[in-house]
Amino acid sequence: MTIYRYLAVLITGLLLGLLPSATAEEPIQAGTKLELLPVGRVTYHSVVVRSVNVRTLMITHAGGMASIRLRELSPEWQARFNYDAAADAAADEAAKNAPPPPPVVRRSAPAAAKGVSKFDTLLQKFGQPATLLPDVDLRPKFFKLELGVKNQGYRPSCAVFAIVSALEFQNAEMSGKVEKFSEEYLIWAVRKSVQRMPAPSTSAQNETDAKEYRDEGFSLPEVVSALRAYGIPLQASMPNTFGRRIESIEDPPQTIVQEARDHQRVFAHQLPGRDHVTLLNNIVHSLNNGLPVAIGMGWPMTRVVNGYLSSQRAAPDRGHAVTLVGYKSPTGRIEDAYFIFKNSWGATWGQGGYGTVTYAYLNNYLFDAVLLELQRS
């Protein structure tokens, strides 16, 4: 490389704040923003470093959230994150040989440190083995907040209802007041964002009437993208009109669109995990921290008795989105756990509108999982 080309690369790196040099840059810490971060063949854009430990880097980026092993970075980037291969290997060995955790006695959670959100605290735990608590169940809080089970009726989408359910809960927890958000607006926003009208399918049909609860076909990632782009207003500003077809939803006035963007900063992130075992481990971390998780999973053709999913086989073309609100494990092992979910088919479905799904079922048929991060405007 000529001296001129070297200088050009150096100046470009300095202008972008991306120069991967341990000597020219201070070590990267939590809170650092990067225009891009290359990891093998993947390049993440609009990166915010959320946490770093000896093995794992947790980031949010333009496409969601990712957990990255530091060993996967190039040597230049490893140096910027103070990567120590020996410490990484020692941490791996310690994790393998760690004895089973002692029984957990539930106590009141300590107050969060000033300026540290529940979400940021959670990010530091991703990538570490989760400890199963004796009983995690957010339903009593949902009941106390009067955030009851909704019925999406003949019009979907289940993914929209799953995310709004988590949003209403977290908003009430953070702000101290209960606010209902508009599924109608978010359905409109997803259509606007993906620029298509998906063909209905019977993937989320009512067990007694094959015509009911037709899933609209929007996926959780599509709803996440629309939420990022358009926000969401209060339901009072754009009430749900379940009797009208999806294509009949009219464009909301600009004032409502502006309210949706200004009301609250809502960031929806796909939960990290390259396989179901890792993803379910991070779901346990989230629930332990009191944060519900919207998930998409395969759905069976057969009747789901009492809302219990266990040994059924999911149909290849069927999917449904729900909100996980807790878990229980009779043995203390994650493999024996079953997760509690809030459905959107009304209070007469399952157990008062709630259902349960085993770890084994999710390990086979989990599609994706979404975690919400709320920040005050």
What does this structure look like?
- The protein has 377 residues and is an alpha+beta fold.
- The protein has two domains: 3-88, no CATH class; 118-375, Cathepsin B, Chain A (Alpha-Beta Complex).
- The chain is 31% helix and 22% strand.
- The chain is built from eleven helices and twelve strands.
- Strands 5, 6, 7, 8, 9, 10, 11 and 12 form an eight-stranded mixed sheet that branches. A four-stranded antiparallel sheet has the order 1-2-3-4, with no helix packed on it.
- A hairpin with a 2-residue loop joins strand 3 and strand 4 (64-69).
- It is globular and about 60 Å long.
Short characterization:
With 377 residues, the chain is α+β, with helices and mostly antiparallel strands. It has helices at residues 3-16, 75-80, 85-97, 118-123, 139-144, 158-175, 183-194, 220-230, 254-262, 276-288, 359-365; strands spanning 33-39, 42-52, 56-61, 64-69, 135-137, 265-270, 293-300, 308-309, 314-328, 338-342, 354-358, 366-375. The chain folds into two domains: 3-88, no CATH class; 118-375, Cysteine proteinases (Cathepsin B, Chain A).
